[in-house]
Fold this protein.
Amino acid sequence: MTYFWRDRVGEVHLMHYAVTDGEALYELVYNTLDQTWSLNGLHTEQP
């Protein structure tokens, strides 16, 4: 994990995680209301 932040949309609290596998950076979001994960972004290096 490289970075973490919290956000709120109405009454829904979201927890954002920036995670890397060494080649790509993923933004994962945890919804605390319905306890689901989603992939919000994927960033890769372009050659």
